[in-house]
Specification:
The complex is a heterodimer of chains A (about 280) and B (about 280). By secondary structure, chain A is mainly β. Chain A has one helix spanning about 1-10; strands at about 15-25, 35-40, 50-60, 70-75, 85, 90, 100, 110-115, 120-125, 135-145, 150-155, 160, 170, 175, 180-190, 205-210, 215, 220, 240-245, 250, 255-265, 270-280. Chain A contains one helix and 22 strands. Chain B has one domain (about 10-275). Classes of the chains: A mainly beta (about 280), B mainly beta (about 280).
């Protein structure tokens, strides 16, 4: 998977890439936004935040705890607001083998111009409460020269509670976008935080609708296959993520993206879902 | 996973190994007399694998591969072998990190003889078994040769701490190409609910522009709490274009262990660069 990060960053060669870290910081057990670093000073040589590589893990989690978290960057000087991205879905402890695992880190391009004098505030917001602290950090990818690429903005819906019943359909939070020109990608995530019994699985479908997308206004996609089922003890976590490019243009600068999830299987605990959109826009 | 856009030339694939590498940390040859195919004109790159043969609980390997031999004119050529993950006692799981492609672009003549080696950075209870797929082309790409060098083991303590690693010296570089960092806990046990979040720091006053790089490794892999037996592994590779002020530079390495662990981690750093042979 590091090869995918390497490959994603290969196309930025020649603009003076350099790397710094933020955190790791304990972000607590609640769902309120917690700062990973509220006073990060951008390196003086930086002329662009090319993107971020988020990481998160649970500290000594209880059985089957999972984390679904949304990260953000804010700060009065930051030209890239709104800038949200998901942290890897951290799957919690499996009872029989106490396995802790996270999904592999991914690179999220942003292309936000910088002067090298900004103070930024990096944060994360868990979509469900955790019994134990989570620890979140970011590898920041900067460049000394602008990449010349369009800036990517991002916004995510928060939790959509799933169900323990099969054939369940739920509407999630609408995602409201301002100053949108063209879509970049869609993201959908599902995770079970809780104890799932043996041989249970999760198949789900995400639907995203926007009346001002041009030309196709409705997108449907399945999430990546379920991750882990531990049948010996009947304790497991299940997690899914899907990330898809979407080049749709916006007919108007302001848009509302509707989010719908369909869950096909019955589970002993309800999963939770989140959707996200990333787009090119103007400040 | 290893598919690359290099299909506009006659590609040739050959293998070396699998070869038992022993239990010690000395360099072992996967194949000391590997003969380059007669039609080959460039070594595009390699993919390296390593596994532990019937490992003890908690065994894992962190190893560095190399290509040497008097016919191979583009030394140093080193990279990271996948971290071979040992057995989890409860479920007898063995795993390795995925094989990755390491591009090299070294011009070669057919029938040259190479020595392909592997160097485990921590001793093991049982043999490691290493193997390499070599990717050649029948025409030269004209791309610059990528050289590589790894720091050797940084044994960290069990506390949250910043540890200095081995310096990496480049003798004849012109431009940096890639950075990598890797961590594992080898031949040791970790107790329940422990985790590892590792940060890598590399500094070089001979780099033009920004001279300090910091990055996290990919999150830790597995914790087995029932028996307290486990391995933990993390890796990160990042592209890094940067000119050097002088051809010879020294890169300082540090690893930051952000967690308390019952067994010490083993870290290594690596750099890959463009330069001149020798």
């Amino acid at each position: 998977m590091t090869n995918q990060i390497l490959k994603a960053l290969e196309s930025y060669r020649g603009i003076g890439l350099f790397y710094d870290t933020v955190g790791p910081a304990a972000v607590g057990t609640g769902v309120a936004r917690a700062a990973i670093d509220a006073e990060y000073s951008v390196p003086s040589a930086a002329r662009e935040l090319v993107g971020v590589i988020p990481t998160i893990m649970g500290e000594a989690p209880a059985p089957a705890e999972s984390i679904l978290a949304i990260g953000d960057i804010i700060g009065a000087d930051f030209k890239g607001i709104p800038c949200e991205f998901p942290f890897p879905v951290a799957a919690g402890k499996l009872g029989a083998i106490d396995q802790l695992e996270t999904t592999p880190m991914e690179f999220w391009p942003i292309h936000a111009p910088l002067k090298g004098t900004e103070d930024l505030n990096f944060g994360q917001e868990m979509c469900d409460a955790n019994a134990a602290d989570a620890q979140a950090g970011l590898t920041l990818v900067f460049s000394e020269k602008p990449s010349g690429r369009d800036q990517i903005f991002g916004k995510f819906s928060r939790e959509i509670a799933g169900s323990t019943t099969a054939a369940y359909v739920a509407e999630g939070t609408d995602i409201k976008i301002s100053n949108a020109l063209k879509m970049y990608e869609m993201v959908a995530i599902a995770v079970c935080a809780g104890i799932v019994t043996a041989d249970q699985e999760l198949a789900s479908k995400a639907t995203m609708k926007c009346s001002v997308w041009d030309p196709i206004q409705t997108q449907e996609f399945f999430l990546a296959p379920i991750h882990a089922i531990e049948a010996t003890s009947g304790v497991a976590t299940v997690k899914q993520i899907m990330r898809l490019p979407l080049d749709a243009k916006f007919k108007t600068l302001n848009a509302v993206v509707e989010t719908i999830i369909e869950q096909y299987d019955a589970l002993t605990v309800a999963p939770m879902y989140a959707h996200g959109v990333r787009w090119y826009g103007s400040k | 996973m290893v598919r690359e856009q290099v299909t506009q030339m006659g590609l040739i694939y050959r293998t070396a190994g699998p070869t038992a590498t022993g239990v010690a940390t000395a360099r072992a040859s996967i194949k000391s007399d590997f003969k380059v195919p007669a039609e080959a004109r460039e070594l595009i790159g390699v993919m390296v694998g390593i596994q532990i043969e019937q490992p003890n609980e908690g065994d894992s390997i962190l190893a560095v591969w190399d290509i040497a031999g008097k016919d191979y004119r583009y030394q140093p050529c080193e990279g990271l072998a996948p971290v071979g993950n040992g057995k989890l006692s409860v479920i007898d799981e063995m795993s390795t990190t995925p094989m990755e492609i390491w591009k090299i672009h070294a011009p070669l003549n057919g029938n040259e003889v190479l020595d392909i080696g592997i160097e485990p950075l921590s001793a093991m209870g049982v043999n490691g078994q290493a193997f390499m797929t070599l990717i050649f082309s029948t025409v030269r790409t004209g791309k610059p040769v990528i050289y590589g060098k790894a720091s050797r083991e940084i044994a960290t303590g069990t506390a949250v701490a910043l540890t200095d690693g081995t310096d990496i010296g480049i003798d004849d570089g012109s431009r940096m190409h890639e950075l990598w960092g890797v961590v594992t806990i080898g031949t040791a046990t970790v107790v329940v609910a422990e985790e590892l979040l590792a940060e890598f720091i590399m500094r070089c006053t001979g780099w033009k522009g920004v001279q300090e790089q910091k990055f996290f490794a990919e999150p830790m892999h597995a914790i087995d709490g029932t028996t307290g037996v486990n391995t933990v592994q993390a890796i990160m590779r990042l592209p890094f274009d940067r000119e050097l002020k002088t051809n010879a530079v020294t890169i300082k390495t540090q690893a930051y262990n952000h967690d308390v662990l019952s067994a010490a981690g083993i870290y290594a750093h690596g750099v890959r660069w463009i330069g001149a042979p020798g």
